[in-house]
Structure prediction request, 474 residues.
Amino acid sequence: MAIKEPVKVREVAALTRAVNFEEVVLGYNEAEALTEAARCLQCKNPVCISGCPVGIDIKKFIYQITQKDYKGAYLTLRERNNFPSICGRVCPAEYQCRKACVMSKKGHPYASANTINVHFLERFVGDHGMKNALDAPVMKDPKLSKFKVAVVGSGPAGLCCSGELARRGIKVTMFESLHKTGGVLRYGIPPFRMPRDILDFEIDSLKKMGVDIIPNFIVGNARSLEELFAEGYSAIFLGLGAGIPSFLGIPGENLCNIYSANEFLTRVNLMSAYKFPQSHTPVNIGKHIVVIGGGNTAMDAARVALRLQKMNGIQADTTIAYRRTEVEMPARRLEIEHAREEGVNFDMLVRPDEFVGDENAFVKKMKCTRCELGEPDASGRRKPVPIPGSEFERECDVAIIAVGLNANQLLTKVTPSLTTDKYGDVVVNKETMETSIKGVFAGGDIVGGEGTVIEAMGMAKRAAQGIVDHLLKQ
Ligand code: FAD
Ligand code: SF4
Prediction:
């Protein structure tokens, strides 16, 4: 029997969406989800599961969709994933479950387009669960209700760990240094990819379970870990994230109008800079914006910059400059496609060498060298090798650097007994996720370095179990 074509997901047209921050991908309706689910071969050996960082029983939830058992499908997802509506929107499935799917061409860096759209099916079921107020079973354990646990950081790791603990009857307080919760889901990923009502719904559900949320509170500054223990917390979870941007280290990088992607996205997503002067935080929008990098952060920054140009009626261009080719770009394939459709330019095999400023120290151009691909490096990707004599300049009045993120060290720097590695990441026991300090656990980007939402949640879930085991021994 011939395998049917994948069901294309509905999206807002590129010209319409590039002038606002509304959600781009509209998702599957029931008929589309049923058709896509029916394409799954229900393999005897469902290898897709090995590609999922949290081991969701993908075959089972897809089968349940075919049976219109959406509640069952939701509960199957929730066994391993606390936030299917979020992951269904942001998971890089083409590098994970879809890449492992039997339908995918082997040996390619990401899944072929014909593989089952597991993430869109997950989103369909997750959204069905939200609309119908479905929830995973609460497993309150009377032996745990006397304990209170502090969760530091409200990104996917902190949210997931809080939910897991509250579900077991533990009193949870979540501390967040920013004025709003959600971590990268709110300050990094723009609303056209991660609608805020979905995030708010998940955070409200935690509040309903009794999780206390304290914003504007830097643990390590307002309170040390010892002080939290002294205040009666029996365990602490650290979901501090990787919020410190890397830079290129080239001349001119500190000129005006050169932002890290983190700063640029935070100003827009969290501080409403696009509404300046009504909002307090400005952001400068150039005519020739260059975004340097090839990951999700670079795509988000470029698509936000392009929207700001268009919404302000600036006749302009936004270009992504990347030192390898599109094949090696780590961003989700869908985001690359969307960025291109919306009008972002791509300039591949470019190495930035220097920024040049005007008399007021505002960046005005970028000196670069063309590259070609050489042998694979430690990451397995082919290395960019500069071509002698290929130097050139490009106009650039705003540059956004999106070349990686490092461990957030607000807390680790002031806690010498917390062991970190050479990258500043917190070292943990991989099974329990306990750190070098007894009763302190960690997960998410602060442990593995810059990763994905589902990986952060997977670690947080393991840590929550580690905390429960620790509490039960007390
Ligand atoms: P974070 O989300 O970084 O949250 C950490 C939180 O801890 C922050 O809110 C921070 O303010 C708070 N904090 C830190 N220190 C303290 C302290 N001392 N006291 C109190 N609070 C503190 N992944 C995907 O899977 N798909 C995507 O499409 C995707 N797109 C991305 C786009 C961007 C722009 C970025 C930056 C990342 C993206 N990622 C994506 C990666 C993903 O968002 C991260 O892997 C994930 O958010 C990590 O979760 P976390 O909870 O560990 O950290
Ligand atoms: Fe098989 Fe792919 Fe379906 Fe998994 S998603 S059961 S690997 S066809």
Notes: The chain has three domains: 10-131, 148-243+407-472, 245-401. Residues 453-472 form the longest helix (20 residues). The domain at 245-401 is CATH 3.50.50.60 (FAD/NAD(P)-binding domain). The chain is about 30% helix and 20% strand.
